[in-house]
Amino acid sequence: MTQADQNFINTCKEILENGYSSEGTNVRTKWQDGEDANYISIVGVSNKYDVEKEFPMITLRNNTKTVINAIDEILWIWQKKSNNVHELNSHIWDQWADENGTIGKAYGYQLGKKYSFRTKDGIKEMDQVDYLLYLLNNEQSSRRMMTNLFNHEELKDMNLEPCAFGTQWLVKEGKLHLILNQRSQDMLTANGWNTMQYAALQHMFAQCAGLGVGTLTHNIGDCHIYDRHIPLVKQLIEAKPMEVCPKLKINNPTKNFYEFKVEDFIVEGYDYNKEINLGRIPVAI
Predict the structure, then answer these.
(1) Over 81-97, what HEC string results?
(2) For 70-95, what is each residue's pLDDT tens digit?
(3) Backbone CA torsion sign across 245, 15, 66, 78
(4) Which residues contact 12 (CB under 8 A, 6 or more apart)?
(5) Active site annotation includes 223
(6) What is the pTM of this model?
(7) Of 163, 208, 223, 245, which residue is the catalytic one?
């Protein structure tokens, strides 16, 4: 059983056993047939992963293709700083795109905005990603290496307000640690996705700064399971996990973050329960 399996199982059990129901609360989310997408949720979840020891992948079902799409999305947001779904290989954002293919001033758009930052060489104009890379290479003792996508001034211009919205990066004894803050998470469709993609980003930034990888702490505000997902989640909880230790390998020695490509990433030592096939998972929108 991987760390990701254990955290997923424990969190889902807590939701199913002690969660709050959204019934009667006028939920925003709908199923494609127009029915309310109600859910059971818990408040304030914090899961930790030792990324140096193991890349956080769930083995209860197949994540072989999912991890590649998750890394492609994180490069779309953090490297391309894009808000256009046509620059993304998967189609997970299509339902939030406008007629021009953009998701508004969300995610990558926010990371591409430039601000005036104080550096050792004076005030410099940079975006959040470049400033973070600057600090990782010049001020590794800083406790202010943070990013934020939840720009209140421009929430009205976003087709979807960011779920994973904030990061903090800390260097301790030569290892890069990451804290990921997320306002809301759909456990079945997004939990493994977010941890894999941010662990991959952690590997990239560590390589760029000449550091090892440390822990990933994933903080979630509202952690939920949708009503139509409950039978599927129960299948996963009861499934047999694999005794493996996945490792992420990057086949690109670059220290330039903007040179990484999705085909540079390989996961070694991964296997999954081949008896589990959840079929097409309904997505609440």
Answers:
(1) CCCEHHHCCCCCCHHHC
(2) 999 999 999 999 999 999 988 888 88
(3) negative
(4) 187, 225, 233, 236, 237
(5) no
(6) 0.96
(7) 163
